[in-house]
Amino acid sequence: MDTSTVRIYNLDQYNYPRFRGKIVELYLNAFTTGDYAQYYSTATAESKLDELIRKGSGNMAFIGDRLAGVLLAFNLKKDHDFPTVSCPQIPVDSSVYIAELMVHSDFRGRGVATDLMNNYLSQAAINCTDAVIRVWKDNKPAMMLYKKMGFIPVATFFQQKIRVTGEPFEMEKFYLHKSLK
User: pTM for this structure?
Assistant: First the structure.
């Protein structure tokens, strides 16, 4: 089997149960390891992912027989943190919100995130006018990718998180926007 080609598949509420365990493992790998590690219990990851798939859909990326990445998205009006008052130029009813984009640490730097984004946004552009994603300001690789893809910062907000060591910290995040038309 080819271990270099990224294959993208749709992810929705119907096929999610089949891949749920692998997606939870990927989520924990993506967010609890490396320079941007945060603490998430398995139960918290399961609950969050279950909620995201109930709200929307996404894509899965495979390399060989391994799940390399996942993108989960839904309509922006379902993101209760989005500052609609300070961003009136963004139509929440016709915008897609990329809620999670995660790539397994074994596959970072191989174009998986780019492939997931390009595939999903090309599909979203059929029904949506805009896309929004949020990212931690210190996640330089993600910031560079999103800017390269045409996303621009439109708002900032802060979230309380917990490091893998158990200590709390405040994470400054940016909402980034891109027109799909």
Answer: 0.92
Give whole-number Cα distances, 180 to 17, 27, 130, 176, in Å: 30, 27, 5, 13
Query: How many angstroms separate the most distant Cα atoms in the chain?
Result: 50
Token pair 């090309």: residue: 122
Backbone angles phi, psi at 120, to 5 degrees: -65, -45
pLDDT of 2 reads 58
Residue 151 C-alpha from the chain's centroid: 14
Q: Give the distance from CA 23 to its chain's centroid.
A: 12
pLDDT tens track for 95-142? 999 999 999 989 999 999 999 999 999 999 999 999 999 998 988 999
* CA–CA distances in Å: residue 173 to residues 57, 96, 137: 23, 18, 5
Query: What is the 8-class DSSP label of residue 129?
Result: S
Residue type, 135: V
**Do residues 69 and 89 lie in contact, with contact meaning Cβ atoms separated by under 8 Å?**
no
Q: How far apart are CA 93 and CA 91, in angstroms?
A: 6
Q: What is the C-alpha separation between 70 and 164, in angstroms, rounded?
A: 22
**Contact between residue 125 and residue 73 where contact means Cβ atoms under 8 Å apart:** no
Query: Hey, what domains does the chain have and what are their CATH numbers?
Result: 6-179 (3.40.630.30)
